[in-house]
């Protein structure tokens, strides 16, 4: 099955480079392009999109607002944000509204394809070191109200779901969680799906942030 991609960047040269890189890759189709967040929303409304490569800093509507709007849609595409700076405030905010991963704009071509395939497989495209740095930025700025709200959310989880959530907060893969908690990968996936629903989050990074806010990871 071919995944339909949307390229969003206000620089036509960046879009052209990404199209050349991804267009000939088996299983990936560059279905549309957009020069800003508002155009990205329009392209996604016109035809189904599986994954968006989203620049963060753009005129008219930036990548953060566009990501938030897309993730609030009934059929939300996966979103990988593109950035020049590693683990900056824009990335933190984009992940907080539901982005599934991020790539530096100078990422080698093969790693861009790997990241896209990772996210399409339902996993975040974030290195453990970057995840730790992002979570630290968010947690360092938390207040008592956020801590209380996070703990109330976690209380909705069963004991087993909480164990899985703690593993997610450490950045463990489905296979690693299954090995540690003696569960099959399909069972792990089922627990993760319920965790996302109960905590009202869109990805693993948001689970990790919430668990850290609650003081449980």
UniProtKB/TrEMBL annotation:
List of residues that carry 4-aspartylphosphate: 55
Keywords: DNA-binding, Phosphoprotein, Transcription, Transcription regulation
Ranges where the HTH luxR-type domain occurs: 150-215
CDD domains, per the entry: LuxR_C_like (cd06170), REC_NarL-like (cd17535)
Domain Response regulatory: from-to ranges: 4-120
SUPFAM superfamilies linked: C-terminal effector domain of the bipartite response regulators, CheY-like
Domain of life of the source: Bacteria
Family matches, as PANTHER family: TRANSCRIPTIONAL REGULATORY PROTEIN NARL-RELATED, TWO-COMPONENT RESPONSE REGULATOR
UniProt protein name: Response regulator transcription factor
């Amino acid at each position: 099955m071919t995944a339909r991609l949307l390229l969003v960047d206000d620089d036509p040269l960046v879009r052209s480079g990404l199209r050349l890189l991804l267009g000939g890759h088996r299983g990936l189709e560059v279905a549309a392009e957009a020069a800003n967040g508002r155009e990205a929303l329009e392209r996604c409304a016109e035809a189904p999109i599986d994954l968006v490569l989203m620049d963060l800093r753009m005129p008219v509507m930036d990548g953060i607002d566009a990501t938030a709007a897309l993730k609030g849609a009934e059929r939300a595409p996966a979103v990988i944000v593109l950035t020049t700076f590693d683990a900056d405030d824009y990335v933190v905010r984009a992940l907080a509204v539901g982005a599934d991963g991020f790539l530096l704009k100078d990422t080698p071509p093969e790693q861009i394809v790997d990241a896209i395939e990772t996210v399409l497989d339902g996993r975040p495209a974030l290195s453990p070191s970057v995840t730790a740095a992002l979570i630290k930025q968010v947690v360092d700025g938390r207040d008592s109200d956020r801590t209380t709200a996070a703990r109330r959310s976690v209380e909705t989880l069963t004991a087993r779901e909480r164990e899985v959530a703690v593993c997610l907060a450490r950045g463990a893969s489905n296979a690693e969680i299954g090995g540690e908690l003696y569960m099959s990968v399909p069972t792990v996936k089922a627990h993760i799906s319920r965790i996302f629903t109960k905590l009202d989050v869109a990805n693993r990074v948001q689970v990790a942030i919430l668990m850290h806010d609650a003081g449980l990871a």
